[in-house]
Amino acid sequence: MATGQGHVKVEDVTKIYDPEGANVLAVEDCSFEIKPGEFLAIVGPSGCGKTTLLNMIAGFDHVEPKGKIYVDGELLAAPDKKLQPGPDRVVVFQQGALFPWKTVLENVIFGPRNTGKYQGSELKEKAEELLAFAGMKEFMNDFPSRMSSGMQRRVEIIRALINEPTILLLDEPFRALDAITKAVMHRFLLDTFDYTHKTIMFITHDLEESIYLSDRVAVMTTRPGKFKTWIDVKIPRPRETRVKASPEFIRLKEEVIEAVHEEAIKAFQRGEREMA
Hints:
Elements: E1 8-17, E2 24-34, E3 39-43, H1 50-58, E4 65-71, E5 74-77, E6 89-92, H2 104-115, H3 122-133, H4 149-161, E7 167-171, H5 179-196, E8 199-203, H6 207-213, E9 216-220, E10 227-232, H7 247-270
Parallel strand pairs: 3-8, 3-9, 6-7, 7-8
Antiparallel strand pairs: 1-2, 1-4, 4-5, 9-10
Helix pairs in contact: 2-3, 2-4, 4-5, 6-7
């Protein structure tokens, strides 16, 4: 399923929100790249602009007043461009977005059926293949209300994958899960990444999670959000839970904690609240 696509380039992006004339500077002069097939995790204190960046890459929010975002060499976002969400960039949100009145299978095929991406029985076969990969094929005729939160998360990721995006944008998808369910979802996401090699941008507050899953961890400052440091995670794949006990993992965790802790203290002292 790997495409070799999914290159993201963000150049000097600044975002100002202006609710009731407040002129909130959310992110300032942010520049970075995500290589095709790379798993990038972004961490930082609440309100530092992590989700703002994700929404601009997804095409849900304007770049304003300056900056440019390119995807696979094409200009996606700039101050003078209309919003351009697209099936090449699919978002999995923290809150969940399954249709409760549709079965698992109906949820998964909803997008590509509406766009005519597959013909005839091909769509159902593709959905069943992905659900089997996720261990969900036997539940494909169930409704979301009958499934655990972890199972619902898997369905949402499969629903994203069936559209064959080049980029998966995950906005704290496991934040509300208990520790055991989160561990299961980590294993599933690692397997999914190894299987698809899709470019992934992953927003999280869980610092251990960021290291365990990603190829790089980007630490953002408190508002206005900038990139404070970049940490390469050179732990070989495929990864097993036992790597969390390795000296290298512990060293990386300490490095990330120290970088984020400094910014979290600043945010607390300033009374920052989470906006985007």
